[in-house]
Specification:
With 568 residues, the protein is of the alpha+beta class. The chain is built from 16 helices and 20 strands. The chain folds into 3 domains: 217 residues, no CATH class; 71 residues, SH3 Domains (SH3 type barrels); 187 residues, endopeptidase fold (from Nostoc punctiforme), CATH 3.90.1720. 30% of the residues lie in helices and 15% in strands. The strands form 6 sheets. Strands 13-20-14-15-18-19 form a 6-stranded antiparallel β-sheet, sandwiched between helices. It has a 5-stranded antiparallel β-sheet with strand order 9-8-7-4-10, with no helix packed on it. It has a 3-stranded antiparallel β-sheet with strand order 1-2-3. A hairpin with a 4-residue loop joins strand 2 and strand 3. Helix 12 packs across helix 13. It starts with a helix and ends with a strand.
Length: 568
């Protein structure tokens, strides 16, 4: 797996050339780095650690030895098919020797390199396939792939072609997720929106699209000397979470002016049926927004804003907006990298020494502390998502002997399951929290002893909704504006939640974990590859480890408001 230090080296060698070649395109340095990591990341990082010269590293960046018997369908399927073409024998000799030379340094290729009929099908850092020998034989015969400018040029040309295949060529910019869609078409020749990133070459663990997206995100955590990375590097055991999207500076500024309630932002300029059906978010009174355009539609105005780190764009009733000065700032909330160590700090229910809280026990205020309980470690998405899968299976929320999560006497325990999942994943989501009087003292710097029923209290789903809004960013959480990002963070190994607050405060709200997709269980996507039903795990009236749940359950009329939150 390519590491951050490898990407830093790659940028030091080639960033200026990439910037120059990609200027005017929709592709940036991190996107091109991601392709290089995916295509030849098993080669150039090894060679650079050995101290080989850059020119030698570029010369040895070849690969893909699969023939017809292993599923190859493109030309050339076999040695015979290649040799039969003009200059085919010369090309075979080049391709075989390239394999032999590379295998000297990469042990995994030595076995196949020893077979006299085997040869490489991919050439250059960005791996142009040998099928293009029929179109441009001199590129391969003259070994132009050994020059970075040449291999980069071919890559950009193929990406432009893939851009059109996916239908993104009219866009003014690409998100990282959209680039991964383009990369899938680069790899396979097409893209199926309903399958998301689970497309392209499968390495036995992850698909090409998943890998490319992860590499783009990793590259964005790596900056050249003196520069700030676009995404803060996560701690060990934490996932990479995209930085909050900034709000464009143009457009007339307003603030929400309801003086009664929050303002509903909708997907389209009309009230849905039921009324909450097309609600994207609820904007607090006084919250700043900017107009996307000055034209009203059905008494709605399209606006854009950021809320607790979530980028939001939709329609609101114009009568609930009042003009604000042009310099009005829309805050972009960036979650803290480390939890606070003084003032208002994390708190867990104190326990008597030697006591153990188990899944088989009836739910209480204590966190789990069983022997052998799993955690989340590592840095690669494969490690993090595998760890989360182990947590889900260990908690086994649907197992009847795990009384901690089983509904009883009209009570359900979604809050406790969400806490346990995050607790094991190393992400603070409180089971108990400070009382109001305790918070006032802590904010003044006073020391407060945690006393149940006095200075601390249990947290239910409604409380967790408010806690995430008021304290979440202090403890690494940020709000997400859409289900697609929410699912993607989970797929990278980060905790994600959907939480809804009940209108009637004494009634139960609900909170679920959004969890990494696995082969047997996936999210549902629409024709634009947007997630419409994320993969969830919950305790509640029904307990399940994996399910898409009831569609848009958080928009039901019984809930006053809802939100999506993510964490590294």
């Amino acid at each position: 797996m390519t590491k951050a230090d490898d990407i830093r080296w790659f940028k030091e060698q080639f960033q200026k050339k990439i910037n120059k070649a990609a200027k005017g395109s929709l592709f940036d340095v991190d996107m091109l780095v991601a392709v290089a990591c995916q295509e030849t990341g098993e080669i150039w990082p090894v060679l650079r650690r050995k101290g080989l010269p850059v020119d030698e590293i570029l010369r040895l960046c070849v690969g893909d030895t699969l023939d017809e018997d292993k599923g190859r369908r493109a030309f050339p399927r076999t040695k015979a098919a290649l040799v039969a073409k003009p200059n085919g024998q010369e090309m075979f000799e080049i391709a075989h020797q390239a394999l032999v030379n590379m295998a000297v340094h990469i042990p995994g290729y030595r076995g196949v390199a020893a077979r006299p009929a085997k040869f490489c099908h991919g050439f250059g850092v960005f791996q142009l396939d040998l099928q293009f020998f029929l179109e441009d034989p001199q590129y391969f015969l003259k070994k132009r792939y050994e020059k970075f400018d040449q291999t980069l040029g071919k890559c950009l040309a193929e990406l432009q072609s893939a851009l059109k295949k996916v239908g993104y060529h009219t866009k003014s910019a690409l998100t990282d997720l959209e680039f991964a869609h383009v990369a899938i078409a680069y790899n396979t020749g097409g893209f199926k929106p309903s399958k998301g990133l689970k497309q392209g070459h499968f390495n036995g663990t992850r698909f090409y699209g998943e890998q490319v997206f992860s590499f783009v995100q990793l590259s964005r955590t790596v900056a050249m000397a003196g520069a700030t990375p676009q995404i803060p590097p996560p701690p060990d055991g934490g996932a990479i979470v995209p930085a909050p999207t900034p709000v464009p500076s143009g457009g007339k500024r307003f603030v929400v002016d309801t003086r009664l309630d929050t303002l509903r932002m909708r997907e389209e300029p009309k009230i849905g049926f039921p009324p909450f059906k097309n609600v994207i978010a609820q904007l607090p009174d006084g919250h700043p927004v900017r107009a996307v355009s000055g034209t009203k539609r059905n008494s709605f105005l399209e606006v854009e804003t950021s809320l607790s780190g979530a980028h939001l764009r939709g329609f609101v009733k114009a009568k609930f907006l009042k003009p604000a000065p042009a310099q009005t700032h829309i805050p972009i909330v960036i979650p803290d990298a480390e939890p606070p160590t003084e003032g208002i700090v994390a708190i867990n229910m104190p326990r008597k020494q030697g006591t153990v809280t188990k899944r088989t026990g009836v739910a209480g205020a204590h966190s789990l502390n069983e022997t052998g309980q799993p955690g989340r470690k590592g840095t690669a998405p494969t490690e993090l998502t595998a760890a989360l899968a182990k947590i889900i299976d260990w908690l086994a929320v649907d197992k009847t002997s795990h009384k901690r999560y089983q509904p009883r006497s009209g009570l359900t325990f979604c809050n406790i399951y969400a806490h346990d999942y995050c607790h094991l994943a190393g992400a603070y989501l409180p089971r108990v929290w400070w009382s109001e009087k305790a918070l006032l003292k802590l904010d003044k710097g006073e020391t407060v002893k945690p006393l149940y029923g006095d200075t601390i209290r249990e947290m239910r789903a409604n409380d967790l909704f408010r806690w995430l809004r008021d304290f979440g960013p202090r403890f690494g959480w940020r709000q997400s504006g859409n289900l697609t990002e929410l699912q993607q963070v989970a797929n990278e190994g980060g905790p994600g939640v959907i939480v809804a607050r009940r209108k009637q405060d004494g009634r139960s709200g609900h909170i679920v974990m959004v969890v990494p997709e696995i082969s047997e269980h996936t999210a549902r996507r629409n024709g634009a590859s947007q997630v419409v039903a994320p993969l969830q795990s919950q305790a509640g009236s029904t307990n399940f480890r994996y399910s898409r749940g009831k569609t848009d359950w958080w928009l039901e009329d019984r809930f006053a408001e809802s939100a999506f939150w993510v964490r590294s």
